[in-house]
Amino acid sequence: MKVCVYAICKNESRFARRWMSSMSEADGIYVLDTGSEDGTPQLLSNLGAEVEIAHISPWRFDTARNRSLALVPADADICVCTDLDEVFHPGWRALLEAAWREGTHQAAYRYTWNFNPDGSEGYVFWQEKIHCRRGWEWAHPVHEVPKWLGPGQPNKIYVDGIQLDHLADQSKSRSQYLPLLELSVREEPDDDRNMHYLGREYFFHGMWERAIETLTNHVCMPSARWADERCASMRYIARSYLALGDRKKAMTWMLRAVAEAQHLREPYVDMAKMLYAEEDWDGVIYFTRQALKITERPRTYICESESWGSLPWDLLSLGLYYTGRYEEAVFAVEHAVELSPTDERLRRNLELMREKINIDKRREV
């Protein structure tokens, strides 16, 4: 099969060599440069990419993606869309070809969106930007997605073993996201995904009232049926009310979030964090234990790193400690330390809890 990579870029010369090396398993690499001033197009061309320069005005990510997809030859079998700050683990092409069958339209693969300061994985989910050459176009001005134009639903496969890491440029601004999301909702007011993303962006900007209004609109939309995303909207509403000082409404929405998606850790952990702030230790114990019963990390993008890191065990250990269950607390904090071995606070907590047990034993003697 003919496998081609395509991308958009602007001022990413520092990533070019690493990215080209990672994508070198493809038969061709095609890049739309949207106005670099740091020599990125020339560097990519020298490294073997086919590069075209275009200025997209007004700027839209979907327009740029479609222009880059148009660069891919018509005889390509598989198109792989990545960004220059992303890197495949070696061997991705062989895994893709082994899994791809006649009639496949799209492939999903494991994607690490960010990494924690200690180097461990942060936000992990399954991405879907590999697709067949025909029948696709990109949609939405921002948070763009490949949209299937063919009959029925696309035939999607999950390819175990393919891993793409996002090694992000933290200096890049997100300032363009909010106006583009507002545009996206104006263009398609009935699109529930757009509404959720806009409400989430208001939350990120600390615009609590607008976040509440927009996210409430999302969960009331007839098309908003995906429990994972509905749950996320409810959690952001709860956290917005909490920021506004309305604990009662925050608790109402957080309980709704738990009920909406009991298969996700995130609402349980958020509830435990709320109860931790109130020193409701029995509540902390209950909700962290419910979270930890979920042992398989879901493939949904709504899968936050802190819920799958040391935090649930950390909160559980504190709840157990403050209710006098010291040996259980030690067991929980040991798990937290295993997941965050460089966290000095956790290590100190472990020492203190072990010492507490020893003191009690000496007193008994």
How would you describe what is shown here?
The strands form two sheets. Strands 3-2-1-4-7-6-10-5 form an eight-stranded mixed sheet, with helices on both faces. Strands 8-9 form a two-stranded antiparallel ribbon. By secondary structure, the chain is α/β, with parallel strands linked by helices. The protein is globular, with a radius of gyration of 24 Å. The protein has 14 helices and ten strands. The protein has three domains: about 5-165, Spore Coat Polysaccharide Biosynthesis Protein SpsA, Chain A; about 175-260, Serine Threonine Protein Phosphatase 5, Tetratricopeptide repeat, CATH 1.25.40.10; about 275-365, Tetratricopeptide repeat domain (Serine Threonine Protein Phosphatase 5, Tetratricopeptide repeat, Alpha Horseshoe).
Core attributes:
single chain, 365 residues, alpha/beta, Spore Coat Polysaccharide Biosynthesis Protein SpsA, Chain A, Serine Threonine Protein Phosphatase 5, Tetratricopeptide repeat, 3 domains, 8-stranded mixed sheet, two-stranded antiparallel ribbon, 48% helix
